[in-house]
């Protein structure tokens, strides 16, 4: 009996990774009853990553993940969950507020129709969350964390931003006018979990499924820095949104992964906050260009790019792995440091911060619409250097293709020396 229940629980956990749960087994009346699907998925993350490692060695003759990149990605995933210590998650908190105060009707929580409608609604909401994260620079500054790896494997899926939730909640609020929070709480988690398995190079083509679903093949394109890949394939579970809104691109040439200008570091702090130097235009924008910039100005991809992979001594690698495993163990055995009352208070403060952040972005939008003044302010930031100075061009504010004193069409004369941001990135040798 116990073994049967155990098998059922493992089966549900595994199927939740692929959105293979039926409405019957994933509908709940109260938010409190909704399982922590993402939290419970940890063993499946590890299991699937190990499986990918083994199959990768068999198929390609070498590891599909490096220690430096893999640990950086998983660590970023851990950092991205830290805000949840203070709050339930912006999306759910804001959602429940709108539901409590402004709902227009109450769809039944135990209806399959409600389940499927929410499935579509959350996935459509995710499409616009994701598209905005690529087209508005302040949102891109958060989302670029996910794209900063030059590798593409399951660990890349975990490389997430700690700040992205600050703005994404707004896109799901229309659902709160009718869909119960418990149904939304299920779908927002399953939608996220589905996107784990599509980060692999080992699954090449899924035939007819490619028409409807977001698959590894489609999402590889989304992570590419080849020109044909930029700003394409934003879908979460379904790819139909991209086909509908004109942002779909099939995989053709070999995909070269990572940011247009590679970040060349494994320092998580730099990765998390590095691009907050810029604001509201698209990542490829520069003076005299339209809001989203001109992809012709980006460095050309030759197909021979080699990922950043500094050689580490064996003792250093062993140290990093042991240290990482100890942190991982601590991460999964958190001691409760806040009382329920303090938790509620922190939750409210965090929600207020999120709201103010969003209002500030809206208010600053016209002011910061990149006047020449702002441009020079943003572009001439020079951070004091220490240890190792690396001349690093961040994509949104830097024009790698501008030559000295070149005057961009329609824009002011730009001293490219001022466009170079000297970062404090200390790179392992
Ligand atoms: Zn993206
Ligand atoms: Zn991805």
What level of helicity do the residues show? 40-55%
Spatial strand sequence of the major β-sheet: 1-2
Termini gap: 55 Å
Note the total helix count: 18
Radius of gyration: 22 Å
Find the structural class using helix and strand composition: mainly alpha
Q: Unreliable segments (pLDDT under 50, ≥5 consecutive)? A: 366-429
Main sheet: strands, sense, barrel: 2 strands, antiparallel
Q: Kindly estimate the percentage of residues that lie in beta strands according to DSSP.
A: under 5%
Topology as a string of helices (H) and strands (E): HHHHHHHHHHHHHHHHHEHE
**Please, how many domains?**
1
Ligand identities? zinc ion
Average pLDDT across residues? 77
Number of strands: 2
Gross geometry: globular
Question: What is the structure about, briefly put?
Answer:
This protein is 48% helix and 1% strand. With 429 residues, the protein is mainly alpha-helical.
